[in-house]
Amino acid sequence: MVLGKWVPEGTTLLVHHTSVSRSPAAWTDPDCYVPERWLGGAESEYRDDRRDWHQPFSYGPRNCLGQNMAWHEMRLVAASILYHFDVELCERETGDWLDQKCWIVWDRKPLICRVRPVAR
Ligand code: HEM
């Protein structure tokens, strides 16, 4: 049963990531880039965000087997890039970033950035 409706046995169900990620039912300011919403916390204006609705590795007994490794890789890569480089978006070359297509996975468009070694 999904949202009070019976689904026939054998039906394949998927969660549409873009819809969930932009849903006002799940997020405060759904169209805003607010990384700190992921920190939660009782005092945060984003405390009621439904972070558990975000399931990029799917859900259930057949969810992604490699998700812990993927998290380690992503943290390492992101931390390493941000430690070594200043990254700036080139908006003119990138175009309208909100004009995206997303089915099961995201049909990613180029994200053109200016990358400079961090001055130390
Ligand atoms: C950001 C990176 C990744 C994302 C977003 C991702 C996402 C997913 C998703 C959505 C599924 C389908 C789950 C389902 O059918 O319900 C899946 C399955 C799977 N993933 Fe990943 N994955 C990632 C990285 C990895 C890595 C690094 C590995 C291995 C080292 C891996 C191994 C697998 C395997 C083996 C399955 C099949 C599990 C099964 O059918 O029981 N994934 N992944």
Tell me what the structure shows.
The longest helix is centred in the middle third of the chain and has 18 residues, at 67-84. Helices cover 22% and strands 12% of the residues. The protein has helices spanning 17-21, 67-84, 91-94; strands at 85-89, 101-102, 106-107, 113-117. A hairpin with a 3-residue loop joins strand 2 and strand 3. By secondary structure, the protein is of the alpha+beta class. The strands form 2 sheets. Strands 1-4 form a two-stranded antiparallel ribbon. Strands 2-3 form a two-stranded antiparallel ribbon. Residues 56-58, 62-66, 69-70 line the site of protoporphyrin IX containing FE.
Blueprint (SSEs and pairs):
Elements: H1 17-21, H2 67-84, E1 85-89, H3 91-94, E2 101-102, E3 106-107, E4 113-117
Antiparallel strand pairs: 1-4, 2-3
InterPro entries: Cyt_P450 (IPR001128), Cyt_P450_CS (IPR017972), Cyt_P450_E_grp-I (IPR002401), Cyt_P450_sf (IPR036396), Cytochrome_P450_monoxygenase (IPR050121)
Cofactor: heme
Pfam family, one: p450
Q: What is the H/E order?
A: HHEHEEE
Give the CA-CA distance, first to last residue.
57 Å
Largest sheet: 2 strands, antiparallel
Percent helix, as a range, is: 10-25%
| Estimated share of beta-strand residues | 5-15%
The overall strand count is 4
Ligands present: protoporphyrin IX containing FE
Structural class: alpha+beta
Mean pLDDT: 91
Strands side by side in the biggest sheet: 1-4
- Regions with pLDDT < 50 over 5+ consecutive residues? none
What would the principal axes of the Cα set say about the shape? globular
**Count of DSSP-assigned helices:** 3
The value of Rg in angstroms is: 18 Å
Cofactor: heme
Pfam family, one: p450
Keywords: Heme, Iron, Metal-binding, Monooxygenase, Oxidoreductase
Protein name: Cytochrome P450
